[in-house]
Amino acid sequence: MFNSQYQHFSNSFAFANLPVIFVFKSVLEIMNILILGSGGREHTLAWKIKQSPLCDQLFVAPGNGGTRLIATNIELQVNDFQRIAKFCLANDVEMLVVGPEVPLVLGIKDYFVQHPDTKHIQVVGPSKESAQLEGSKAYAKQFMADFGIPTASYKEFDHSSLEKGIQHIKENKGPYVLKADGLAAGKGVLIIENQDKAISSLKNMLEGQFGNASSKVVIESFLDGIEFSVFVLTDGDSYKILPIAKDYKRIGEGDKGLNTGGMGAVSPVPFVTPSLMDKVENRIIKPTIHGIKSRDLDYKGIVFIGLILVGKDPYVIEYNCRLGDPETEVILPRLNNDLVALFKDLENGKLNTHQISISDDVATTVMLVSGGYPQSYEKNKLITGLEEASDLLVFQAGTKYAGGKTTTNGGRVMAMTALKKNQAEALKSSLAGAEKIHFEGKYYRTDIGFDL
């Protein structure tokens, strides 16, 4: 039915017969929901949202081979705001959950709010200006400086100040941390030991190594410590802290090799003690929310704070304006709350009425990736064994389903998530599940959580 509705409204935002449906749904407090994205994060969001009694029809655009099992996949590109809006109107979507960062940084929230026919649709995520906390490293650094939030010292340079950047590198010892100011698909951060290589890397970045993302480069002082991730749900005034996680970015065992989008994650994080969380909340979370509020930013969504523990003190590495991947695959299984109810109350100012309930169980996830990832890899490899891993939460990412077969369609293929009483049991289960899935070139790390 939604296909015919979508066709009917493909050239217009009018929806003459929808108010009756809208009123009916409002009385029942149920809604149709659209999730944007196609990764493991979005499959996990779909899995969690589908559990809510507030969710009626669930759509995912464009989705993957796993989301089709619990929702309706829709062929929409996440940056095609006009078609997304038309689809939402044609299918009585009342909540739009944005998975990836690019639509938020490009202003999908503003697009919906500013159009009279779509302003009633709740967009879970911050405005374009607010999303600059992720979209611009320089913006985020200045924000942290303005509100006294602990982070590495830094300087920013563009092509006109290249010589000053070179001089800055020469006057300081490595390792040198060079960050593309804009979004670079997780590839725009370089940590370099050698001074000459750091200088040549700065030149390459400013000359377009990462496109427009590196037209400005932030050079930070290096912080030596262990990283973890904190996720905060906020309505721009109050906030709630979601489960804490630690992910593993390097491709190789022992956390060696090239950076990836994430090879696995664990939650909770053993070294994140109540004392440390007290520091995180008072030194970082509260000043961040205060900054959002004092600047009157339209921020109703997730603040993902990437942190590093240096000695006994936490420092901010970066902000993200959405859930992380693969952290989502371990934090949402531990969240006992109705996620839709939490999202809904972002809009009506009732977030502070919720008490967050987190499972005592440990969640671990191990990511299966295509051979060659994070460099060149082949797609369309047949995936088998999914039915044998029914004891796990298998969140698909780079997969597609066609002709009765599930095949690989990306570098990170799927996350094997286990929820057990302790970390050892969970990791054993995740790794056992990884052995049950088969596709040509499959690779995964066996040491996720080894350092905890």
Distance between the termini: 50 Å
| Count of β-strands | 20
CATH homologous superfamily title of the largest domain: ATP-grasp fold, B domain
Total number of domains:
3
Highest-level CATH class of the largest domain: Alpha Beta
- Helix and strand composition category: alpha+beta
Mean pLDDT: 92
CATH architectural label of the largest domain: 2-Layer Sandwich
Given the C-alpha coordinates, what overall shape results?
globular
Q: How large is the share of residues in beta strands? A: 25-35%
Radius of gyration: 22 Å
Percent helix, as a range, is 25-40%
User: Helix segment count?
Assistant: 14
The largest β sheet comes out as:
5 strands, parallel
Low-confidence stretches: 1-27
| Strand adjacency order, main sheet | 3-2-1-4-5
| CATH topology group of the largest domain | D-amino Acid Aminotransferase, Chain A, domain 1
